[in-house]
Amino acid sequence: MKIGIEGQRLFRRKKHGMDMVALELIRNLQRIDTENEYILFIKPDEDDRVIMETANFRIVKPEGGFYPYWEQVALPRAARKAGCNILHCTSNTAPVSTDIPLVVTLHDIIYMESSYLKIMEGSGSLYQKFGNAYRRMIVPQIVKKSRKIITVSHFEKNRIGDFFGMAGDPRLTAVYNGVSEHFKPVSDQVELQRVKEKYHLPDRYFFFLGNTDPKKNTRGTLKAYSEFLTQTGSDIRLVMLDYDRVELEKLLAEINDPALIERIVLTGYVVNTDLPSIYGQCEVFLYPSLRESFGIPMLEAMACGVPVITSNTSSMPEVAGDAALIINPFKPEEITAALISLTSDNALKKQFITKGFAQAAMFSWKAMAENVLRIYGEMADV
Is 171 exposed, middle or buried (0-12, 13-18, 19+ CB in 10 A)? Predict the structure, then answer.
């Protein structure tokens, strides 16, 4: 069987959540499957050695500029030319006109939900708004025509089933994400110091992966952190990854706390292989999102031996189990109370670290790839 996998953004230098899922899927399929032939469709970019060709894995680089054109025109043309029996699109959308049987990884349908769209009216970047509009146009069509739809949690499977009227549809299945093998405690002091200096990390800090997407709850997290400082007089800083300073200043002005920026460290973009050293040196990892379909960073932090604060909403309790301190993300005072608990009760902190190691060990990319390979096999049997 000749299987095409879309990995449009995998050669770009700054890779994020869905990109890393696709990358780990491909890497693990290369380890476990020597029988099928794979064609990887990736847009040309600078990080072109992140995946290497092997005996049964070939890379094709369809040209094309704007993402919709690449996906709707260049990708199906290249897949048809390559003679693919299956085309797996890995990041929510897919070409609507192809006659090649489709597998689609539908990570979430947040952009279809009225509550989220209402929040986005007054926030979010132009890029995010365009992306959401494109998905709202494409996803309903793709759901109808896909042979298989993979999502990443049972919560999201139920959401998709209810929204599109396909509850119980055998085409829809949940396959958990995993944790990459390099996420583990770092004992090399030279490496820890290198990362600390590279990203200007303070001696004590909380780590928060906030961004301008409203679902990340950056506003509520900043309010909670500010109140933590007020109540405790602590010197613990807040480290934020890849957040624009101008946007942060604007947000802090909106919550009437512009001086808080002096307590925040903005790292810029962090190379994925540097993340374990950042997780491992933080006091607490903050993941109080309003809505997630899975939540890989929670497991990464747990695997690095860090206590996690996360939300009681959407998929997060499913993925975190009892290994994180669960709060209501709509109540900043609960986030504050959780921070105080973990920084003042060392026994509680150790308890969550121990549980976190066990929880993270339950999720692997190898298991994910094996499940996806089984789905490919089911399509071949049709």
Answer: middle
**What CATH number belongs to 189-360?**
3.40.50.2000
Distance CA 237, CA 232 (A): 13
Q: Name the pLDDT band for 122 (thresholds 50, 70, 90).
A: low
CATH of domain 2-178+364-380: 3.40.50.2000
Tell me whether domains 2-178+364-380 and 189-360 share a fold.
Answer: yes
Write down the pTM of the prediction.
0.93
β-strand pairing of 205-208 with 148-151: unpaired
Q: What does the alpha-carbon distance between residue 108 and residue 304 come to, in Å, rounded to a whole number?
A: 26
Q: Are 163 and 143 in contact (CB under 8 A)?
A: no
Domain coordinates in residue numbering, the chain? 2-178+364-380, 189-360
Distances (CA, A) of 165 to 144, 203, 283: 11, 51, 44
Q: Taking residues 125-143, what's their average pLDDT?
A: 87
pLDDT digits (tens, 9 = 90+) for 123-133: 666 767 788 88
pLDDT in tens, 236-260: 999 998 788 999 999 999 999 999 9
